[in-house]
């Protein structure tokens, strides 16, 4: 207060100098374990952020000895001082598996200059909206099959419009979508019978995410006693094995086409394999990580979006109005058209604010000592970004538990602090798949709302979010898809 009036500046600076990590409120490891194991936060680590923010304020040391940051202002201050080669934090669990099996590292696990060089290759053909637009044809084909599948399922239901377990349907859509981009291969997830290998891969991802938390919080010696480690290793084997089969198949296909003098230039994988700046081992690891990162993220976001639209008919009507006004009913929209739709974009943005699929992120800031929120930190300080608590901060997002896409419209109203919701991260280490993810979500949401009015099924009730590394619904979502025709 005194500082803000410009009085006694020197003494303030002095005070600032004196505030260090030692002055921060601190959660002990025991308190953390107690909260996770006995107070019910094991599956709700995102809610623990909100609870601890109430107890300790905007910045504190959490039970894992990292500095938790829970406001948009602090997050902005921190992100603007990020390293040249940002480190997300301790990925030793993920790299441990790769070392064990002699695999390479992808963008999620690589660090330093090697990470930077890898991203330089991966970003091309993916990160710019112009790059992602190239995939709109491929994505629209997958969307068309998905809409057909939804139509088939609803018609086969007893009420003629019910689709059960919508989240699972979006999962298959997202997997089919990302695989068709990475490999230009259709996996067949949108037909009645899911191929056995694909199902195994789906189960492996789910198992990896659910065992990840157990492996992370229990000490190494418990690995032979508790079931998590074995499950964790088996699940990674399943993930890498599946990606390897797809890459090998594609390699064969490319060789065949080169022999027949056919064009092989357009595919992402071909581009990676022909790039001399990345080794084949790293291509395998990178494509596996892209595949992994590209499924649960978009599918859960789409599930939450439809859930909220079904519960907020006035929002859905507004979206339908935009959709039906800008593109005639019988036409498939282009990438350029959907990315110009403010309300469609706002619906996805608001969904990701309410349900940030990555509810917690981290950085280790290593290059130099620095200060945030008036505290001095030595280099190599680990930070936890409490994205869930930040995007539910009532001072930035009033009525933060209500779905209000209009908060994001540029129609003269004051815009929220952009760091209040950064679901794809920020800066050079931000999500490489962002543009592809957005395009996929816009295109499929557009087509669903163009064709159906989505209504809640009374048996579903309220969905709660639980944290399984990514934020997922606590139970199955069933929805009615009423034909608009
Ligand atoms: C709703 C969709 C998605 C969300 C919300 C999301 C969110 C994120 C976030 C928060 C990060 C960490 C960024 C940071 O630390 O600053 C990230 C990283 C990453 N994402 Fe996504 N993501 C989504 C979809 C995708 C898709 C479709 C792909 C693949 C095509 C993908 C691939 C990756 C990869 C490889 C990284 C690691 C980047 C690096 O460390 O260099 N993501 N994502």
UniProtKB/TrEMBL annotation:
One of its GO terms (molecular function) is iron ion binding. GO terms for biological process: C21-steroid hormone biosynthetic process; cellular response to peptide hormone stimulus; cholesterol metabolic process; cortisol metabolic process; glucocorticoid biosynthetic process; vitamin D metabolic process. One of its GO terms (cellular component) is mitochondrial inner membrane. The keyword Oxidoreductase applies. InterPro entries: CYP11_CYP27_families (IPR050479), Cyt_P450 (IPR001128), Cyt_P450_CS (IPR017972), Cyt_P450_E_grp-I (IPR002401), Cyt_P450_sf (IPR036396). Pfam families: p450. Heme binds at residue 431. Keywords: Heme, Iron, Metal-binding, Monooxygenase, Oxidoreductase, Signal. Gene3D superfamilies: Cytochrome P450. Transmembrane segments: none annotated. Its cofactor is heme. PANTHER family: CYTOCHROME P450, CYTOCHROME P450 FAMILY 27 SUBFAMILY A MEMBER 1. Belongs to the cytochrome P450 family. This is Cytochrome P450, family 27, subfamily A, polypeptide 1.1. It comes from Fundulus heteroclitus (Killifish). The lineage of its organism: Eukaryota, Metazoa, Chordata, Craniata, Vertebrata.
């Amino acid at each position: 207060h005194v500082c803000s009036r410009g009085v006694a500046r020197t003494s303030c600076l002095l005070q600032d100098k004196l505030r260090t990590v030692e002055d921060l409120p601190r959660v002990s490891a025991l308190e953390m374990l107690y909260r996770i194991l006995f107070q019910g936060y094991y599956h709700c680590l995102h809610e623990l952020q909100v609870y601890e923010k109430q107890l300790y304020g905007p910045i504190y040391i959490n039970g894992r000895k990292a500095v938790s940051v829970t406001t948009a202002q602090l997050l902005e201050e921190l992100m603007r001082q990020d390293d040249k080669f940002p480190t997300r934090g301790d990925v030793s669990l993920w790299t441990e598996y790769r070392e064990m099996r002699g695999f390479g590292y992808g963008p999620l696990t690589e660090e330093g200059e090697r990470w930077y060089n890898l991203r330089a290759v991966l970003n091309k053909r993916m990160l710019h909206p112009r790059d992602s637009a190239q995939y709109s044809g491929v994505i629209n084909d997958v969307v068309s099959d998905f809409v057909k599948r939804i139509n088939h399922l609803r018609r086969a239901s007893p009420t003629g419009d019910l689709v059960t377990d919508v989240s699972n349907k979006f999962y298959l859509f997202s997997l089919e979508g990302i695989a068709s981009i990475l490999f230009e291969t259709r996996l067949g997830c949108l037909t009645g019978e899911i191929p056995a290998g694909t199902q195994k891969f789906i189960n492996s991802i789910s198992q990896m995410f659910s065992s990840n938390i157990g492996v992370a919080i229990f000490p190494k010696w418990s690995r032979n006693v508790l079931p998590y480690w074995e499950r964790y290793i088996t699940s990674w084997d399943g993930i890498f094995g599946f990606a390897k089969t797809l890459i090998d198949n594609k390699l064969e296909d490319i060789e065949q086409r080169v022999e027949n003098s056919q064009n092989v230039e357009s595919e992402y994988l071909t581009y990676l394999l022909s790039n001399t700046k990345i080794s084949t081992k790293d291509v395998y690891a990178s494509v596996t990580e892209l595949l992994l990162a590209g499924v649960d993220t978009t599918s859960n976001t789409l599930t939450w979006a439809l859930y909220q639209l079904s519960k907020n008919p006035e929002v859905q009507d507004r979206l339908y109005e935009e959709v039906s006004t800008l593109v005639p009913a019988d036409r498939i929209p282009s990438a350029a058209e959907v990315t110009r739709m403010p309300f469609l974009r706002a619906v996805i943005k608001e969904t990701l604010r309410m349900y940030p699929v990555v509810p917690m992120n981290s950085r280790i800031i290593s290059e130099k000592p620095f200060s945030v929120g008036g505290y001095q930190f030595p280099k190599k300080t680990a930070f936890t970004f409490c994205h869930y608590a930040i995007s539910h901060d009532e001072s930035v997002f009033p009525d933060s538990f209500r779905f209000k896409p209009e908060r994001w419209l540029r129609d003269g109203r004051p815009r929220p602090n952009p760091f209040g919701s950064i679901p794809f991260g920020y800066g050079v280490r931000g999500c490489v798949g962002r543009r592809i993810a957005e395009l996929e979500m816009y295109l499929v949401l557009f087509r669903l709302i163009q064709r159906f009015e989505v209504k809640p099924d009374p048996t579903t009730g309220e969905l709660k979010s639980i944290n399984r590394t990514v934020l997922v619904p606590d139970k199955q979502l069933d929805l009615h898809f009423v034909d608009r025709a």
